[in-house]
Each structure stands twice: as C-alpha cells, then as structure tokens.
Amino acid sequence: MNVGLRYRLILWTLFFVSTCTLPSFAHPPIFHTGDGEADEYPMRLRQIGPRKRRSADPLTVRLEKHVRVLAQMKRGWNDPGLEAAAQYIEANFKTRGLVPRAQVFSARNRTFRNIIVELGPVDRSTIVIGAHYDSYGSLPGADDNASGVAALIELSAMLQSRKNSLKYRYVLAAWPLEEPPFFATPQMGSYVHAAALKKAKENIRLMISLEMLGYYSDTPKSQSFPIAAMANLYPTTGNFITLVGRPGEAQDIAQLKASFRRAKLIPTEAVIAPPQVKGIDFSDHRNFWSHGYRALMITDTSFYRNHNYHEKSDTPDRLDYKRMSAVVKSLDMALAELKPRPKASAQPAVRAP
Questions:
Q1: Pairing label, strands 241-245, 204-211
Q2: Which residues, at least 6 apart from 23, have a Cβ–Cβ distance to it below 8 Å?
Q3: Which string of b and e fits 302-319 if b means at least 16 CB within 10 Å?
Q4: Cα separation, 178 vs 77, whole angstroms
Q5: What pLDDT, on the 0 to 100 scale, is given for residue 276?
Q6: pLDDT at 304
Q7: Which candidate among 7, 24, 119, 153 keeps its CA 20 to 30 Å from the CA of 311?
Q8: Residue 261, exposed/middle/buried by CB under 10 A (0-12, 13-18, 19+)?
Q9: Is omega for the bond preceding 181 within 30 degrees of 0, making it cis?
Q10: For residue 48, what pLDDT is reported?
Q11: What torsion do the CA atoms of 171, 28, 255, 246 make, to the nearest 10 degrees?
Q12: pLDDT of residue 352
C-alpha cells in the first residue's frame, strides 16, 4: 500500500470514529477518496419532461425527464406513489426491450416489489447494478434517489444495445425501502434481493449501487470536508463523482476509476476503507457485503455537497443533468472495459443488518 493511500485510510478512520454520534436516520454516502417513452405509463406523467435547452444531449434530456417524473411522485414507504414509481420503472425497462420481473416481499403488513431485469450470457459471472427508488418521507428525492434510478434506466438501454457482445451477465434492479425506517434491516429491498441471490448460489462478479448522482457545483469551496486536513488531499470544488468500497474492492475500484478518467467526461475520486469503519456501508451495497459479495457505491457525496439532502428542496431543478449523463456514459465504458477476476469472487460475510 502506498503512503498516500495509507494516509487517506487513516483520515477516513478518524472521520468515521468522530461521526459515530450521527442520528440513526442519517445514512449519507461516503465522501471522497435506449431511447423512447414508457407508453404503458399514464399520459399525465408521460407529458412531464425537461425544460427546453439548446443542443441538449439526448441522454441528458432523458435523464432529466425521468427525474422530473419520479420527483413528482410521493415515494415514501407508505405512499401510493411508491408503487407508481415501480410501474414507471417497469414500463421503461419494457420500452427498452427488456423483460422485467417483480420480486415481491412484505414489510409492516404491506407488499413491496423489487423490479429486476436480466441480460447478457447466462453462463458468465454476474454484475448486479441497482438503485433504490423510494425517497425519505414523502419528499421529492430528486438527487436521493431519482437520479440513481434515472441512471439505471438509461444504463439498461446502453447494455441492451450491445447485448450480443456483453462479457458478463447483468442483473439490474430497482429496490424500495432503502430509506428509514427500514435502513439497516433485512426488510430493505436490496437485502431481500441479495439473500435470494445467495440462496440461488449466484456467481456475482461485482455489485454497484447507484446512490445520488446528480448534484455538482463549480463554486470554489462548495465541497465540505469532515476534517480540515482532507482539503490538502481532495478537490474543494464539488464537481466530481466518487467511487466507494472496502479494501476487497480495491482492484475493481482501480479499474473503474481508470476507465472513468480515460473517458475524460467527469472528474473522478475514490475512497477505500475497511468495513469496520462506521458509514462505509450507508447504501444498498451493504446488503451484498453481508452476503459475502464484492460491492461498491457510486455517489456525488450526498450532504457533504448537497445541502438539500432529505429536504423539500431536493428538487429536479437543482441537479446537473449534463454531468449525470457524463457519469452514465463513463460507467458504461468502464463496464465494457472491466476485466475478469478469479472465480472465487465472494468474500467472507460481514455482520448482517
């Protein structure tokens, strides 16, 4: 391990030890280191689209449309809009030539659905990519996490467009119940999914959680820091995307980061920290760790940059869809370049929620 990486790990350990008193409802991501409409969906929602912009990239336009549609639904765990969001995701997967299936489960005497699609060769190891589609309370949740769902939908179209040349089998999933009161419980949709994959003895090459991808700033010092020394190691302008994982994911993160940087579309940072560090598991990837799989998170760093986190002000007009598009394109390129790992891809399970 080089000196720079060791220094970063020490700083992260100090930070998370110092934040052990965070409220239980706060689960921020870690800071630093097909075209077409869904015709099955109601016309009222299909008509909601992005503001007109000159020479907008088509992917940018579609991402904004998805976020605007989802943000006008109330997607709290007991809101009817949560099921409406599931239907919207299903319809968009179908429009892109995919066949979604629902993984149904119960929590608090209610029924919920994971929406899952599969593509690629069935005899290859699997990459799971997912995003939670619920929001905190009944808030708009544009960045948290309509942005992740929008990216998932559009990534599905990119993978589908080259389905005959995919090196891996892909399982794409949209999960409910990531937010409180279900966070860190076996009732999280991603926990239900990971448990089913483990029971089926699926060979999972890697899992990627898409968690808040849309908030960026070019203003100097717009990126906050948990401890002052980190300002000497990382950018102080919040215009980058971050890859987060444990030491076991270091090889995968290095590959992905290198691909992101080769794409030259968006600045990319990364953090690698041990699973014992409090906070490293603050998204759906935690549930794949607890079942022995390698998993990482891609994030815009949440409230260390976006002060609209878990607020009514987390609205679509505050997001940067051009940079969101850059993240999706970079991820698609990174997946195409991702090299195989040894067959023994699972790690010892860590403590389950």
A1: unpaired
A2: none
A3: bbbbbebbbeeebbbeeb
A4: 9
A5: 73
A6: 85
A7: 153
A8: middle
A9: yes
A10: 44
A11: -100
A12: 35
Length of the chain: 353
Euclidean distance between CA atoms 188 and 105, whole angstroms: 10
The confidence score (pLDDT) of residue 286 equals: 97
What is the per-residue DSSP string for 201-218? T--EEEEEEEE-------
Residue found under tokens 């691909």: 259
* Environment class of 130 (CB within 10 Å of its CB; exposed 0-12, middle 13-18, buried 19+): buried
Do 190 and 171 form a contact (C-beta atoms < 8 A)?
A: no
Cα dihedral 43/47/49/54 (nearest 10): 140
Strands (E), the chain: 101-107, 110-119, 126-132, 169-175, 204-211, 241-245, 268-272, 295-299
**What residue type is 348 in one-letter code?**
P
The maximal CA–CA distance of the chain, rounded, in angstroms, is 57
**Cα–Cα distance for residue pair 353/349, rounded to 1 Å:** 12
Nearest residue to 280 via CA among 42, 30, 23, 57: 30
> Average pLDDT of each block of 10 consecutive residues along the chain (353 residues)?
49 45 37 38 40 73 98 97 98 98 98 98 97 97 98 98 96 98 98 98 97 97 76 90 94 97 97 74 95 96 92 98 98 96 49 36
Sheet containing 295-299, strands listed edge to edge, beginning at the edge strand earlier in sequence: 101-107, 110-119, 169-175, 126-132, 204-211, 295-299, 241-245, 268-272
Return the amino acid letter for 339.
K
Q: Is the peptide bond before 145 cis (omega within 30 degrees of 0)?
A: yes
- Going by the DSSP 8-state scheme, the letter that residue 302 receives in this structure is G
Rounded to two decimals, the pTM is 0.84
- Beta strands 110-119 and 101-107: pairing type? antiparallel
For the domain covering 3-337, report its CATH number.
Answer: 3.40.630.10
Cβ proximity of 298 and 210 under 8 Å: yes
Contact 136, 126 (CB under 8 A): no
